[in-house]
């Protein structure tokens, strides 16, 4: 793993934190990426898009002096806020097992009274339950597992460097048993591959079984120059004939909704209702806000 120099760790999110349902995503005030690149090898990864100008996006690189920079930035903030981790690079990549940069960052967030929302594909996140609980004494903390395929064999084809689906669910159970709210992020939903109702239904039922509080999705994916070519090469290799269906259905569009989106949405929301899973960001953000200490009332 290489270390790369950077000037800062936190990026301010201008629309985060109002808590009234207007946020298009998880409530957060800052994004934090401690690493660059990713070893998951997901065939659909948007980070391969040429607009990001990332050199070797499949290689994990740590940000040099990340914890010292983070400490300085946290100390400079006038009031605490919620920080999102995992937007551009999974903070729980395999290197984190020994590097413990993410673990060090969580300790700093606890020390300075900041909240955390993690999105990950790795069961390694369960290692840091003690720090999530420490953060919760003052602020919200939550963990969201990215799940795309209920079947491990399919998951291995579309996410070859990722832990098995059941391993992620078992980590989710450890986290929810510790009192930290967690859920699943069924994203992307790949047309003709993972958008079948059977796949979606099984994921929702497993989420409930393993203690998830919410299950979110965007009913599709995105494709643009760079990641489109990589994705199509993977389809030709592992799913012959599917590429032609994409080209016929979507051309060079950026936004790729699943076929029959509205019908699937109705089934999805009805099933979540039966299972008691939140399925909107508005409701999920309320769950998150209720999970922290008294100081969170300053923020929302």
In short:
By secondary structure, the chain is of the alpha/beta class.
Considering the chains and any ligands shown, give keywords for the structure.
300 residues, alpha/beta, TIM Barrel, seven-stranded mixed sheet, three-stranded mixed sheet, 11 helices
Just name the CATH architecture. Alpha-Beta Barrel
Largest sheet data: 7 strands, mixed
Kindly identify the CATH topology: TIM Barrel
Main sheet: strand order:
2-3-6-7-8-9-10
Global geometry: globular
Q: Given the helix and strand composition, which structural class is it?
A: alpha/beta
The CATH superfamily is Aldolase class I
Can you tell me about this structure?
The structure is a single chain. The chain is α/β, with parallel strands linked by helices. The protein has one domain: TIM Barrel, CATH 3.20.20.70. 38% of the residues lie in helices and 15% in strands. The chain has helices at 66-76, 96-99, 101-112, 129-136, 152-158, 165-177, 197-209, 227-238, 242-250, 261-275, 281-289; strands spanning 2-4, 10-12, 30-32, 35-36, 61-63, 82-85, 115-120, 141-146, 182-186, 214-217, 220-222, 255-257. The strands form 3 sheets. The protein has a 7-stranded mixed beta sheet, with helices on both faces. Strands 1-5-4 form a 3-stranded mixed beta sheet, with no helix packed on it. The chain has a two-stranded antiparallel sheet with strand order 11-12. Strand 9 (182-186), helix 7 and strand 10 form a beta-alpha-beta unit. Helix 3 (101-112) packs parallel to helix 4 and helix 7 packs parallel to helix 10. The radius of gyration is 19 Å and the shape is globular. Residues 16-23 and 294-298 have low confidence and may be disordered.
